[in-house]
Amino acid sequence: MDPIIEPEARKRAMAELDVLVAHRFNVSIDELEKIYDSAFPVQRKYDQKDGIDYAGLLRSAMARI
Fold this sequence. Notes:
Elements: H1 7-24, H2 29-39, H3 41-49, H4 54-63
């Protein structure tokens, strides 16, 4: 398997994994966003600086489940 090198593809893959685990443990998308915001405030700032909408990626991944 090839490693995911592109930052955007890596973020999408991370969001999909986060959503799969949340789904397994019956965590809603709103709860997952709150967890992400409270547990990773520094990462959220980096994402905003880089123009990445992680909440949007989470919602997009959740829609595919």
